[in-house]
Amino acid sequence: MEARITKYNTNMSKNDVKVNKVNKMSIKKDNAIELWRETHGHISNICRAIGISRTTFYEWMQDPEFSMRLVDAESELNDDIRDVLVSKAADGDMTAVIFYLKSRHPDFKPAPTTNVAVQVNNYSEKAREQKDKYGIN
Q1: Which domain holds residue 117?
Q2: What's the domain count of the chain?
Q3: Do the Cβ atoms of 55 and 86 come closer than 8 Å?
């Protein structure tokens, strides 16, 4: 059996090294997208599997192309989960029915609430201070 020796090109230019790094990063990003689908978006598991930090992952999310691919993967996941929910509701699972109606059907959605901040001035305290200040009984 003949042994094969692979000779590596040690005369790589800086540009070749950059291209190689970009290719490796592109492959890792592709793997991250696929793992997003498999792990249902569990970032820690994705990072561990491809050997990057969470910080690096969040930096990648600033890349519009990568970010859009994540949005697409998340949309696919949402579609899958919706299918399960609808299936359970169709099978008579009342929790699924209620959840579906409250989140999707306009007649059952909770009414929007408005928070109002009210400032109450304590005029009696101010009046007392004024009386004391000006000697009014």
Answers
A1: 14-134
A2: 1
A3: no
